[in-house]
Specification:
It is a single chain. The protein is mainly alpha-helical. It has one domain (about 15-185). Helices cover about 70% and strands about 10% of the residues. The chain has five helices and two strands, in the order βααααβα. Strands 1-2 form a two-stranded antiparallel sheet. About 25% of the residues are buried.
């Protein structure tokens, strides 16, 4: 009897369409959130810091207002999806349940993180935007007599630094959930047999 063996074939666990859609929504929304917060701190804010204080305050307020509308919705999608998967996992204490629980917990943690650490800085910057609203946007001396640690530039830079914490939380959450999806891929051997006539007859 001759045998052909082909190892290294991949298969995936069969999931319903609804579950697949939910999984994609959770992963993409969390990855989007991580990318968005990272871009705000590493791309947007460094560019904004070149502007005079009145313009900087106005630009930061525009960025902040957009975040207030988008980030909670995106976070809620990921948090809801990962919490649902963790709750409905048929194997309590399994690696998949632990990873989904971790992802959901990290996204939930971003809420108090934002309120407690970013909140005070954001409040000061919103007040800056209000106080400088009637000042010429190109006035470079608008905060000339102010303590350095309370200037708009320092506050915006501090906000960007603290905002990196949200980037880390959402990135690790996305990585944990992605690992679950990848972990469903398993390698199994596929064996094909070339059988002689006598063996086909059961002899």
């Amino acid at each position: 009897m001759a045998a052909l063996t082909n190892k290294g074939l991949f298969y995936t666990e069969e999931l319903g369409t609804t579950i697949r859609i939910a999984q994609v929504l959770g992963l993409t929304s969390t990855a989007f959130l991580a990318g968005k917060t990272f871009a705000a701190s590493f791309a947007a804010v460094p560019a904004l810091l070149h502007a005079p204080a009145p313009l900087l305050a106005k630009q930061w307020k525009t960025l902040f207002d957009a975040d207030k509308l988008v980030n909670p919705v995106v976070s809620a999608i990921g948090l809801g999806v990962f919490s649902f998967f963790a709750y409905r996992d048929p194997n309590p204490g399994s690696r998949h349940q632990i990873l989904y629980t971790t992802a959901a917990a990290l996204l939930a943690t971003s809420i108090p993180y934002s309120l407690l650490l970013l909140g005070p800085i954001s409040a000061k910057l919103e007040q800056k935007a209000q106080d400088l609203a009637s000042t010429s946007l190109t006035d470079t001396a608008a905060e000339s007599g102010m303590a350095k640690e309370e200037t708009t530039h320092v506050l915006v830079d501090r906000w960007a630094t603290v905002n990196l914490g949200r980037t880390l939380l959402s990135f690790v959450a996305a990585a944990a959930a992605t690992w679950v999806a990848v972990d469903r891929l398993e390698v199994v051997p596929a064996v094909g047999k070339l059988v002689g006539g006598a063996d086909r007859m059961g002899h």
